[in-house]
Amino acid sequence: MAKETTTFGLALPPRSPRVPAYRWLYSSLRAEILDGRLRPGTRLPSTRDLASQYSLARGTIVNAFEQLRSEGYINGTVGSGTYVSRALPEQLLHVASGLPAKRAVRRDRHTVISDYGRGARLFRGYETRPIRAFRANLPALDLFPANVWTKITVRCLRRISIRHLMGCDPLGYMPLRKAVTEYLTRARGVRCVPEQVAIVSGVQEALDLVGRLLLKPGDRVCVENPGYPGAVLAFQAFGARIFAAGVDDEGAKVDQLPVRAVRLIYITPGHQFPLGTTMTLSRRLRLLEWARKAGAVIFEDDYDSEYRYSGRPIPALQGLDENGVVVYAGSFSKVLFPALRLGYMVVPPGLTDYFEAILSLTIRHAPLLEQLVLTDFMTEGHFARHVRRMREVYAERLSVLLDEARRRLAGLLEISNIEAGLQTAGWLRGGIDAESAAAAAAERNVDVTPMGCYSRGRIIPEGLQLGFAAIETKEIRRGVRELAIALEEERSSSKS
User: Fold this and answer.
1) 3-class state of residue 77 by DSSP
2) Backbone angles phi and psi of 101, in degrees to 5
3) I want to staple 482 with a disulfide (CB 3.0 to 4.6 A). Which of 32, 374, 423, 444 is the partner?
4) How far apart are CA 341 and CA 332, in angstroms?
5) pLDDT tens digit sequence for 350-406
6) Domain with CATH 3.40.640.10 in the chain
7) What are phi and psi of 110, to 5 degrees?
8) What is the distance, to the nearest Å, from the Cα of residue 81 to the centroid of all Cα atoms in its chain?
9) Coil, strand or helix: which one is 36?
């Protein structure tokens, strides 16, 4: 059966101003496919045609296509044609019963949705698409010692007891809390005892717990700008008002923070996300003094500061806190692997009972088997060895990226010479637009993220985020070569 080709524009429903362009396009195309208006085998218009028809950035089109492709609605590659899949996910779900796929049931108009439910927005985490240059926010998963993890898991299952099968305290398995305390004290300069440590599923859950405890609708929360969007979405779901403070080479601009009526500030001082800067000591001390005077709590997200490639890791802000105003959080997702949904919080002594109560009412406790395995993985020295090895690997990959960029991207993209983390920022030159550059790079099988995705308003120059930790050196070289071609084409088209 020959494939059909759409030589005409798609007649999609109008977009509401409240719906992001990417989400509108994804939902509209998905509905067209499921309703049969776009039949299996139909070739979709090119990203350029769709961008022109709907006045959207090509990056928006590419992102929507990538999501549809990952869910199985379309197939093919950018450049060689994109087609509606012949076997759709909804159809596959009903193969066994032979029943036709049903439309999603609409919510009853009498169902009352809470303010939190109305305020919540979907936040996409890790996607399962292939890893290629320059996928950001991922560790080198192929280098994780899975054989060691497997052996420890089997051993834990063999010796598991009835007591283990019953669960653990809401704050987590105490031997793991002790291991985390020892690690944070030694490697991150955190000052705590095991009773202050809570084991959670990751930083995202820690943000939710802090919001539950501290925020009510209308409360003001300060964030970095640019900064981590997952924090903003978490706080907005509680009805918080967001105040965005700028970032420079010394970290968040403390002088821009309000002097009162602030409940919480979210900060990444060890390795600012996404710019990669490290907050200076003088500014850290000023931030702590500001929080004391404002009566605010500081949420310190120390998401990947283990990986520092010049000198010793910078100690955590929490280690300087003399007034109990810092909630410190980290995750094992970027150190070990994303599917390990375990992280930790270090809570000021006066708040531990509150967090324990909230955890007892929500998840009860993090999965115990994973806590048992991680405990042995840490206490037997595997964790420290893995971090040391990855620090060497990532340093080499960063060096290759910087060397290749100096050779091939001069005058097109200036990459920041960072000293820590899993990704870096690059600043576009020659009037190149970041979204157009990202779309052009995607057509050459290169992943870069426009820095504007992390900004509230246009407050920084046009730039791209590039990951390097999960990318082998050969792929880094290919990625730089292809990115250079894409950016050169974009610069030429912007001048014409």
Assistant:
1) strand
2) -65, 135
3) 444
4) 8
5) 999 999 999 999 999 999 999 999 999 999 999 999 999 999 999 999 999 999 999
6) 145-384
7) -90, -10
8) 30
9) coil
Its pTM stands at: 0.78
pLDDT tens-digit map of 304-340:
878 887 666 678 999 999 999 999 999 999 899 999 9
Asked if 207 contacts 299 with a C-beta cutoff of 8 angstroms, the reply is yes
Architecture (CATH level 2) of domain 385-495: Alpha-Beta Complex (3.90)
Residues of the chain with CATH 1.10.10.10: 21-104
First to last CA, the chain: 42
- 21-104: CATH topology is Arc Repressor Mutant, subunit A (1.10.10)
Question: Phi-psi category of 430—alpha, beta or left, where left has phi over 0 and alpha has psi -120 to 50?
Answer: left
Are the C-beta atoms of residues 429 and 484 closer than 8 Å to each other? no
- State which amino acid sits at residue 468: F
Torsion over CA: 433, 435, 440, 441 (sign): positive
CA atoms of 383 and 391, how far apart (whole Å): 12
Q: Which residue has the tokens 């003088």?
A: 282
- In this structure, are strands 220-225 and 241-248 parallel, antiparallel, or unpaired? parallel
Q: What is the amino acid identity at position 428?
A: L
Tokens representing 451 are 């820095």
Task: Name the residue among 76, 102, 82 with its Cα closest to residue 90.
Answer: 102
Check: CB of residue 115 under 8 Å from CB of residue 453: no
Portions of the chain given CATH number 3.90.1150.10 = 385-495
